[in-house]
Amino acid sequence: MATVYQTIPQLSQPHLLTLADYSAQEILDLLDLAIKMKKPENKHRPLLQGKILGMIFEKSSTRTRISFEAGMLQLGGHAMYLNTQDTQLGRGETYGDTARILSGYLDGVMIRTFKQEAVVELATNSTVPVINGLTDDYHPCQVLADFMTILEVFGTLKGKKFAYIGDANNMSNSLMIGAAKVGMDLSIATPAGYAPNQWVIDAAEGFAKESGATLTITTDPKEAVNDAHIIYTDVWASMGQEEEAAERLAHFEGFQVNEALTALADPNYIFMHCLPAHREEEVTTAVLEGPHSVVFQEAENRLHAQKALLVALMADPSIEI
Ligand code: CP
Ligand code: NVA
């Protein structure tokens, strides 16, 4: 007999393009489902029996590709890996036309690409759910796994102090939006010239006003980390910025997460990183492998958080779970 744990969360938006699209309650409902999906007895619930997810990758991936594919298989469905080279996307077929074609074959599409506009064009023309698996602007699926991990460790998100150190990129954008939505106080420290864009600051400040969260933007990593419960970093050169890597290495000096910096955090702080990490660049091995690091728990949670998302977006809402 099936374990009854809750009804499938009904999301107000059919696609996940950015966390800005979902309310704080919708995000919390997804995380609640994710934590339940992680229980071993729920690993193989066939909630997406016979459903097919297409996965378009225009950038590399280990975690996203494998966790989505494994998640679909565990849910009784199927996942199809699609790349630019082997589809007509590489020869100029538009995202809009591609979406109209894929909608006739598939039950959902996940895309990892460069421009957020590509994901928007895909979703606008799709009659099946579209999930953003990372763009230059956002990485919302990673943030679902990150927040799930914080909930597992601390039992709450609201009121926790979150310090992000390093490059203002797709990760920090999604974390800023997500934290502001759910009421976490976020401080971001970047070198001068690498600060978050004004559009994301404005969006996050708008959500923070509603939740009561605070947002601090600084060029001083020590200020950001002071008393933090969560320290997060990401690579200094993201996918697509390979040519800037050497220049960035010089500009980010002083922004490494190391034991001298983490000493300023709350004694029970956790260290997080979306991975892949460049050891001894943005983080030392001592911190990454140290007792406060939860990076591998966080990476595993990609699977569970995405299974919850896939179920919420693609399962028949009348299914009793
Ligand atoms: N964190 C993350 O998205 O990893 P991949 O690039 O391996 O998918
Ligand atoms: N900011 C990184 C995240 C990788 C998961 C990138 O875009 O390459």
Mean pLDDT: 96
Q: What is the annotated CATH architecture of the largest domain?
A: 3-Layer(aba) Sandwich
Helix content: 25-40%
What structural class do helix, strand and pairing data support? alpha/beta
Provide a count of the helices: 12
Question: What is the assembly state of the chains in this entry?
Answer: single chain
Descriptive account of the structure:
With 321 residues, the chain is α/β, with parallel strands linked by helices. The protein folds into two domains: 19-138 and 301-313, Rossmann fold (3-Layer(aba) Sandwich), CATH 3.40.50; 142-299, Aspartate/ornithine carbamoyltransferase (Rossmann fold, 3-Layer(aba) Sandwich), CATH 3.40.50.1370. Helices cover 39% and strands 13% of the residues. It has twelve helices and nine strands. The protein has helices at residues 24-37, 63-74, 95-103, 116-124, 140-154, 170-182, 198-211, 221-225, 245-251, 259-262, 285-288, 295-314, and strands spanning 52-57, 78-83, 108-112, 130-132, 161-165, 185-189, 215-218, 230-233, 270-273. Strands 7-6-5-8-9 form a five-stranded parallel β-sheet. A four-stranded parallel β-sheet has the order 2-1-3-4, with helices on both faces. Helix 6 runs parallel beside helix 7. The longest helix is centred in the last third of the chain and has 20 residues, at 295-314. It starts with 23 loop residues before the first helix and ends in a 7-residue tail after the last helix.
